[in-house]
Design goal:
The structure is a single chain. By secondary structure, this protein is an alpha+beta fold. It has a domain of 67 residues. The chain is 21% helix and 9% strand. It contains one helix and four strands, in the order αββββ. The strands form two sheets. Strands 1-2 form a two-stranded antiparallel sheet. The protein has a two-stranded antiparallel sheet with strand order 3-4. Strand 1 and strand 2 form a beta hairpin. It starts with a helix and ends in a 7-residue tail after the last strand.
Amino acid sequence: MERKHFLRSFAIAAAATPMLLDACKKDSADTAIDSTGTTTSADTNAGSSACRVTPTEVEGPYPYPGGELKNPLDRSDITGGQTGVPLVFNLLVVNTNDNCNVVQNARVD
């Protein structure tokens, strides 16, 4: 009977440990999900005196052999007719050489 009691107690403790560890971890203050389900970040450049420069890419983008007009990769709806959870990225492109002013109609690859 002692072995059975020990195994049951051990199984309960093993199952409860991940929940306790998850409950004790510190929440991230940088990212939050609002009531509409969208993710907002506390680290934005709005209202700051200087904008951050992200690293530039070393290679690419590689042009499509058919040219820009026939490029099948140049599309705004990449779902391909599949269903799922929508993911929206809101990107802000700024010109660091022009006092961090917004670049209108910028294309992001």
